[in-house]
Amino acid sequence: MSRLAVPKTYKLAIGGKFPRSESGRSYEVTGADGAFLANAAKASRKDARDAVVAARAAFAGWSGATAMNRGQVLYRVAELLEGRRAQFVDEIAAQSGASRAEAGAEVDEAIDRWVWYAGWTDKVAQLAGNANPVAGPYFNLSVPEPTGVVAVIAPQDTSLLGFVSAVAPALVTGNTVVAVASERFPLSAISLAEVLATSDVPGGVVNVLTGSPAEVAPWLASHAEVNAIDLVGAGGIDWVELEFAAADTVKRVLRPESGADAAAPSFERITAFTEIKTVWHTKSLI
Question: Which residues form the Aldehyde dehydrogenase domain (predicted)?
Fold first, then answer.
């Protein structure tokens, strides 16, 4: 007798848990051929606010960890991604219509990109910080620190690679993230959240919302507890209004990007979400 398949349920990822939308809404995710793949939660304003609360609560612990420890944690995520590679290949192929070879190449590149950013955790201070020359009996040090809670509108035309490319750099220096996944290709983002939940990444460090970026992004852009917003995947919505909303609460803003590899790996994507703290200290006169 053949057994019944157990279809996967894709939910939101907030505070290390996987709730349905408080609104009870969902939407159908279909493959390239129009076939039904899954129901995904359609996040609401309340879900966005809950995600920000979770990210804020997780900030002190994640930013307070040593750079070496954050690097080890992020490397562990890459290990788990490698172990679940077949699942991500299946999801990407089903959503986009790509061949398994093409989907596998995307997964491999996403893993490599995650490892690339993990390697930066204990190197950022050496490049972004400095011992500054000053005149007088004191010295001056500039040290990079995380900005805080970063909202991310992930690239909308890719699945796993675009999501990783936007989220990983924000984590390097200790920021926490609320990410709005691709509306069309959300499955891999939730599966990645499951990987994070079974790794050493503390709950709330990465929160994933699925649904309509046009609906959710304005609430994140105007939220006073969000310190920066990455609009890399917001080119298809009214991102100028989002920039205006972000200005009201003095957020850092990264504007939308387009092209085959939006959010390409770069050191600048890390420093975009850092602040520079300058410390003055007197020299001993003895």
Answer: 29-234
Counted domains in the chain: 1
Q: Is residue 173 one of the residues assigned to a domain?
A: yes
Partners of residue 13 on adjacent β-strands? 208
Model confidence pLDDT, tens digit, residues 166-216: 999 999 999 999 999 999 999 999 999 999 999 999 999 999 999 999 999
Residue range of the domain that includes 146: 36-282
Domain-located, residue 156: yes
Question: Does residue 14 lie in a domain region?
Answer: no
Q: What are phi and psi of 269, to 5 degrees?
A: -70, -25
pLDDT digits (tens, 9 = 90+) for 47-86: 999 999 999 999 999 999 999 999 999 999 999 999 999 9
In a domain, 69, yes or no: yes
CA distances from residue 80 to 94, 179, 191, 213, 257 in whole angstroms, order as listed: 21, 20, 11, 28, 29
Q: Are residues 197 and 13 in contact, defined by beta-carbon separation less than 8 angstroms? A: yes
CATH number at residue 141: 3.40.605.10
- pTM, two decimals, is 0.93
Q: How far is CA 109 from the centre of its chain?
A: 16
